[in-house]
Amino acid sequence: MRLYNTKSRSIEDFSPLSGKTVTMYACGPTVYDYTHIGHMRKYIGDDILRRTLTALGYEVKHVMNITDVGHLTNDSDTGDDKFEKTAQKEGKSVWDIAAFYTNYFHTTMEAVHVLPPVIEAKATDHIKEMIALVEKLVAEGYAYETSQAVYFDVSKDAHYGELSGQKLSEKETAARDDVVIDPDKRNPADFSLWFKRVGKFADHAMYWPSPWGDGFPGWHIECSAMSMHYLGETIDIHTGGIDHIPVHHENEIAQSECATHKQFVRYWVHHDFLNVEGEKMSKSKENFYTIDDIIAHKIDPLAVRILFMQTSYRKPLNFTWESLDAADQQLKKLQKFAAHHSEAGSISKEYKKVFLEGLEDDLNTAKAIATVWELIADTTLSEEDKWATLLDFDTVLGLGLKDAEKFLITEAADALVTERDEARKNKDYEKSDQLRHELEALGYEVLDTSDGTKLQ
After folding, report:
1. Given 215, 243, 271, which residue is the final one in a domain?
2. Which domain holds residue 107?
3. Same domain, 121 and 267
4. 256 and 168, same domain (yes or no)
5. Rounded Cα–Cα distance for residues 75 and 183 (Å)
6. Is 7 helix (H, G, I), strand (E, B) or coil?
7. Confidence at residue 177, expressed as pLDDT on a 0 to 100 scale
8. What average pLDDT does range 363-380 have in this prediction?
């Protein structure tokens, strides 16, 4: 296996610290808003990496955090609290906001077949570990206290900026001067480890006792504390989006390595951005799409897996509904193939070798997908051997192709819904009722709505 390591800026041979066990930490969602297709790309990418490592014989200890406290609207510790802003807008408590959007994240991940992590760690369940890490940094002189917060002193870390390649002087030049900051900060790039419940955070709803008074953790400290708690002081793989490189992951490295005096992460894996119709995704542009939008377009959510696998995780990807619809058509072809096969033969060693070689080459998923179509088109293989090989591939692809019967039922149900909506439009209620009974016989609950027949 060869992976691109952001730290070395090169593709490296992958070798875990401990035999066939891989420790992998994934930056999880900040649960103050809906999970969108940009998030899906990152977590599907993590999922493909984990499934590939498993297919290669590794045991992956996958830990992912849920950020449910401490993330401000500016990653550099200025701005407002994201949870409190959403809570005020929706008229709910910050705890309700975190619970609702955590559930939405889980629903989204289930819909696109992302395997749950071995350990899912909520920030609010690990305050003790964060405080202990901050105490260590203070005791060793890497952090200092002001009237507003406890900060990490970036000038004490000689290696600060190596991940992003940005010098500290450049970071300080780029620091924002249009926000109110703590006048007692020693350096503009210093980042908060613990916010005190004073000043603009005097009424902060989430807070805990600490040696520095009531308050709450900064965003960056949680990942270091929880990854070390579950995976040890040095981990094999840490994943995230490329937007995390210059601030969040830079800060994670600094606080972790200064606390332990050991290498924090051996391989940094970062996923590139997803644009929508050539533009950055945002609610103001009305191109902020979620799993609900995909379903509303009558596209199988699993089509996004095929769409995302057609481009390297290290390259920008432009999302369009046309491209997703094309991926959905490819998915349907695979589903129909699966639906008409039940007897599995022998896995083709030749095709499996090519499939895995693509994935071993820095997760070349485009080559892996191309191998799938070559397999299906091969007239020299028996249908049973094709099916066995495709099932084996699907342990990585994650398309759920073994549930073949479901696809036939779904295809039949879609046809009946179309026919029933036409009958209702023509006021043929007798036929409409007959089609209702047929849908119910397939196991669906039939709902009549202003948008037509809906199934549950």
Report:
1. 271
2. 2-271
3. yes
4. yes
5. 19
6. coil
7. 41
8. 97
Please report which confidence band the pLDDT of residue 176 belongs to, taking 50, 70 and 90 as the band edges: very low
Separation of alpha carbons 323 and 189, rounded Å: 41
Do the bridges between strand 235-241 and strand 21-26 make them parallel or antiparallel, or are there none, so unpaired? parallel
423 shares a domain with 387: no
Mean pLDDT over residues 325-338, rounded? 93
What mean pLDDT is predicted for residues 243-267?
Answer: 97
Task: Assess whether 327 and 439 both reside in one domain.
Answer: no
Report CA-CA distances (Å) from 404 to 341, 387, 401: 8, 11, 6
Please tell me the distance from the alpha carbon of residue 80 to that of residue 357, in angstroms, as a whole number. Answer: 47
CA distances from residue 414 to 419, 421, 436, 455 in whole angstroms, order as listed: 9, 11, 12, 10
User: Both 190 and 279 in a single domain?
Assistant: no
My answer on whether 243 and 356 are in the same domain is no
- Per-residue pLDDT for 77 more than 60? yes
Mean pLDDT over all residues of the chain?
92
- The CA dihedral of 331, 361, 3, 66, to the nearest 10 degrees, is 10
Helix 321-339 vs helix 383-397: angle between axes, to the nearest 10 degrees? 130
CATH, residue 379: 1.10.730.10
Asked if pLDDT for residue 179 goes beyond 60, the answer is: no
Phi-psi category of 213—alpha, beta or left, where left has phi over 0 and alpha has psi -120 to 50? left
CA angle 311, 285, 98 (to 5 degrees): 80
Backbone dihedral region for residue 57 (phi beyond 0: left; psi -120 to 50: alpha; all else: beta): left
- Cβ atoms within 10 Å of 300's Cβ, excluding its own: 21
Of the chain, the percentage scoring pLDDT greater than 90 comes to: 78
Domain end residue (candidates: 271, 294, 328): 271
H or E stretch including 353?
helix 349-360
**Which helix (H) or strand (E) element contains residue 448?**
strand 446-449
pLDDT at 115 over 50: yes
Q: Are 151 and 195 in contact (CB under 8 A)?
A: no
Q: What HEC string does 101-112 produce?
A: HHHHHHHHHHHC
Query: How many structural domains compose the chain?
Result: 3
Are both 241 and 336 inside the same structural domain? no
Measured distance CA(129)–CA(201) in Å, rounded: 22
Task: Say whether both 254 and 298 belong to one domain.
Answer: no
Helices (H), ranges, 56-174: 82-90, 94-111, 127-139, 168-174
Between 304 and 439, where is the model more confident? 304
Q: Helices (DSSP H) in 216-299: which residue ranges?
A: 219-231, 250-260, 291-296
Closest CA to 166 of 84, 250, 88, 268: 250
pLDDT score recorded for residue 409: 67
Is residue 408 over pLDDT 70?
no
